[in-house]
């Protein structure tokens, strides 16, 4: 199974975001990481060590980290519902598709509570 590790300043907040917005199932969770099943894809949210975390600044609202080399895209059933849940948890799913999506109105960009960018594709 393919998996990705997402390093988080606030493990609980970020893991809760992905479980609630994308209906991910928690397979295992402890004080250092949360292993989430995102419909056949594993997302491991890993707590950043405190001596590193103290140097990570998360603004409110979070500033998107768009310069990363990797973006995770997730399927969603109801974009309006997922957008509402994302906003209630400190994240965002854009109201409009990105300009480069052209006529594809089912794809939106968003970010989690720490600014990590993701794509959301309605199914």
Question: How would you explain this protein's 3D organization?
Answer:
By secondary structure, the chain is of the alpha/beta class. The chain has one domain: 2,3-Dihydroxybiphenyl 1,2-Dioxygenase, domain 1, CATH 3.10.180.10. 20% of the residues lie in helices and 33% in strands. It contains three helices and eight strands. A four-stranded mixed beta sheet has the order 1-4-3-2, with helices on one face. It is globular. It starts with a strand and ends with a strand.
Question: How would you summarize what this structure contains?
Answer:
With 123 residues, the chain is α/β, with parallel strands linked by helices. It has helices at 11-21, 50-53, 79-88, and strands at residues 3-8, 25-29, 33-37, 42-47, 72-76, 92-93, 107-111, 117-122.
How far is the N terminus from the C terminus? Answer: 22 Å
Overall form:
globular
CATH class, named Alpha Beta
Estimated structural class: alpha/beta
Number of strands: 8
Order of helices and strands: EHEEEHEHEEE
Helix content bin: 10-25%
Q: What is the CATH superfamily classification?
A: 2,3-Dihydroxybiphenyl 1,2-Dioxygenase, domain 1
Unreliable runs: none
Mean pLDDT: 92
């Amino acid at each position: 199974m393919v998996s990705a590790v997402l390093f988080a300043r606030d493990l609980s907040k970020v893991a809760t975001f992905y479980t609630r917005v994308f209906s991910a199932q928690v397979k295992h969770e402890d004080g250092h990481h949360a292993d989430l099943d995102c419909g056949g894809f594993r997302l491991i949210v890993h707590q950043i060590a405190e001596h590193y975390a103290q140097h990570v600044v998360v603004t409110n609202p979070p500033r998107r980290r768009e310069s990363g080399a990797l973006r995770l895209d997730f399927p969603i059933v109801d974009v309006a519902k997922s957008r509402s849940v994302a906003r209630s948890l400190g994240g965002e799913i854009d109201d409009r598709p990105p300009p480069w999506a052209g006529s594809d109105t089912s794809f939106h960009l968003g970010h989690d509570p720490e600014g990590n960018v993701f794509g959301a594709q309605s199914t």
